[in-house]
From TrEMBL:
Residues 1-76 form the 2Fe-2S ferredoxin-type domain. Gene3D superfamilies: 3.10.20.740, 3.30.70.20, 3.40.50.1780, Fe-only Hydrogenase (Larger Subunit), Chain L, domain 3 (3.40.950.10), Iron hydrogenase, small subunit (4.10.260.20). This is Ferredoxin. Keywords: 4Fe-4S, Iron, Iron-sulfur, Metal-binding, Repeat. Coiled coil: none annotated. CDD domains: fer2. It comes from Vulcanibacillus modesticaldus. Transmembrane segments: none annotated. One of its GO terms (molecular function) is 4 iron, 4 sulfur cluster binding.
Length: 572
């Protein structure tokens, strides 16, 4: 332990504690911009300076030492912080009122907190075109403050290294190497960089106006479906606590917006389990292409394509649930409704930016029609609800439409890391046993740790070594061990985003300080498992609408028609 003095308060902290953390322990707030705990700790922006003796030092990297006397609130400190922020503002495209981060911008609130009312430094400004090349992520360099938080997330957490600092001096910008368009880089579209960005320099490629246009078109039947993780996060955009479930309100809001049908992607998650569970049982029998790797996360699929192309055959051939649902809407449902599928518009509300990219992939279409026409993030949906003037918090709960409105708890848990594996095990267990069993909760695959392993013995004695992974840095580690032959699994679930879709790049942005106090991943995944518990049916194969669609239309899991509509192949 070391003893230090902060603003006249004597405190004892563990050796190695930074002054920033020590101050937090005693309730003294020091502002930061570039700092992201455990991800980006470069002490470059200097918004967190404190006075130590005669010197001003950045507190985020300054380790507390015995006898240190620190002052955080002196004229010198306040002036220095103001200068830091004013200099950043002098090279910032300040269009706060029309910025999509208005009121959710760390730079804006820091400038306000520091009482910056006029700008002393006006000079040359960085100029660059906005990069709209990627269907998922937009880059606006003129708003970038060079904090490096996105770079650190992409490199240290995801190990993708799609973006970095390029050029030098005043010309320094953040972008892919050689300033290539983002679409031509190795970016896998996860959007974790958006969650890390303190300002509006990175955001999703918006499709809000496309949806309003389609809804206004009387010739179109506009159908929407919502991912499992959206319902446990959307409420945050309307001031509800993190981890509030708003399923019924979300459905009501979608009807008010003007969608003709409101379906649940969770239904197709159940369907994915039927297809993928069957695929797993078959691969276990033949021993081919093991481990079976989940393919519902498009960020992960692209990561495999770039980094482990020799393992593409290990990916499940199942399309992701919302793509399966899109394919069924344009076939089974279109027939039932007697509508030409060309006049149906399928919109998916997803916690994910990578799904925007995924929906445009050729591999995910049928008869020259995209299975899903548009993907909106949770944030874009919130924006539409606000634009429509809907009083979200006071909405009465409504139910999804059928035939794609009924899902089991297994479908819901897809939204959290470990959910796909658990949902699959619930079904595979009973399919293999040929009878109903009590096994519902597979706690070994739950929790937000980056890598979890479980060995599951099936009722027929077969053993499945499973790895459940979230975050691509963790996935890279496991894949390298598999390639070296040091690990042997039969089934692997990977979600690109830390925590899984609940923490996807399209989810509400939680400011950095709240993130330091509440683990958003834990709060949202608790809501997911609560929703699972609240449902009467918790195993995909017990979903009556799933049974019906096989009886009426698909035949059986992995049938010829299933393959045509619900499966695909990713090839190098
Ligand atoms: Fe996900 Fe999925 S759970 S990928 O994890 O398989 O985005 O939420 O919709 O498709 O169902 C995301 C979430 C989502 C799909 C499902
Ligand atoms: Fe990196 Fe993901 Fe951002 Fe692409 S979307 S730049 S992969 S963090
Ligand atoms: Fe999208 Fe989920 Fe994958 Fe993140 S983990 S990229 S939110 S599918």
């Amino acid at each position: 332990k070391v003893k230090i003095m902060i603003d006249g308060l004597e405190i004892e902290v563990e050796k190695g504690t930074t002054v920033l953390e020590a101050a937090k322990e005693v309730g003294i707030h020091i502002p930061t911009l570039c700092y992201l705990k455990n991800v980006n700790e470069p002490s470059s922006c200097r918004a967190c300076v404190v006075e130590v003796g005669p010197r001003l030092i950045a507190s985020c990297t300054l380790k507390a030492e015995d006898g240190m006397n620190i002052k955080t609130n002196t004229k010198k400190v306040r002036e220095a912080r103001k200068t830091v922020v004013e200099l950043i503002l002098s090279d910032h495209k300040r269009e706060c009122t029309s910025c999509l981060r208005n009121e959710k911008c760390e730079l804006q609130s820091l400038a306000n907190n520091l009482n910056i009312r006029e700008l002393r430094f006006e000079g040359e400004r960085t100029r660059a075109e906005i990069d709209y090349s990627s269907p998922a992520i937009v880059r606006d360099i003129e708003k970038c403050i060079l904090c490096g938080r996105c770079i650190a997330t992409c490199s240290n957490v995801q190990t993708v290294n799609a973006i970095g600092f390029i050029n030098r001096g005043f010309g320094t910008i953040v972008g892919p190497s050689f300033d290539k368009p983002l679409a031509d880089s190795v970016c896998i579209n996860c959007g974790q960089c958006i969650l890390a960005c303190p300002v509006g320099a990175l955001y999703e490629h918006e499709n809000i106006n496309d949806i309003w246009r389609e809804i206004e078109n009387p010739d179109k039947l506009v159908v929407v479906q919502t991912a499992p993780a959206v319902r446990v996060a959307l409420g945050e955009e309307f001031g509800l606590p993190i981890g509030t479930r708003v399923t019924g309100k979300m459905v009501a809001a979608l009807r008010k917006i003007g969608f003709d049908k409101v379906f649940d992607t969770d239904f197709a998650a159940d369907l994915t389990i039927m297809e993928e569970g069957t695929e797993l049982i078959k691969r276990l029998e033949t021993g081919e292409n093991l481990p079976l790797m989940t393919s519902c996360c498009p960020g992960w699929v692209k990561f495999v394509e770039h980094n482990f192309p020799n393992m593409l055959e290990n990916l499940s051939t199942c399309k992701s649930p919302h793509e399966m649902e899109g394919a069924l809407i344009k076939s089974y449902f279109a027939k039932r409704m007697n509508v030409d599928p060309k006049n149906i518009v399928v919109v998916s509300i997803m916690p994910c930016t990578a799904k925007k990219f995924e929906s445009q992939r050729e591999e995910l279409s049928n008869q020259q029609m995209q299975d899903v026409d548009y993907v909106l993030t949770t944030r874009e949906l919130a924006q539409m609800i606000k634009e429509a003037g809907i009083d979200f918090v006071n909405l009465k709960d409504e139910e999804f439409d059928n035939p794609f409105g009924e899902a089991t708890g297994a479908g819901v848990i897809f939204g959290a890391t470990g959910g796909v594996a658990e949902a699959a095990l619930r079904t595979v267990f009973e399919l293999v046993a040929g009878k109903d069993l009590d096994t519902v909760d597979f706690n070994a695959v739950r929790g937000i740790e980056g890598i979890k392993e479980a060995t599951i013995e099936l009722p027929n004695g077969a053993v499945i070594n499973t790895a459940v992974i979230n975050g691509l840095g963790n996935a890279r580690k496991v894949m390298e061990l598999i390639q070296k032959g040091e690990k042997n699994y039969q089934f692997i679930e990977v979600m690109a985003c830390p925590g899984g879709c609940i923490n996807g790049g399209g989810q509400p942005i939680v400011d950095k300080e709240t993130r330091e106090n509440i683990d958003v991943k834990i709060a949202r995944s608790k809501a997911i498992y609560d929703e699972d518990k609240s449902l009467p049916i918790r195993k995909s194969h017990k979903n009556p609408y799933i049974k019906k669609i096989y009886d009426e239309f698909l035949g059986e899991p992995n049938s010829h028609l299933s393959h045509q509509l619900l499966h695909t192949n990713y090839v190098a």
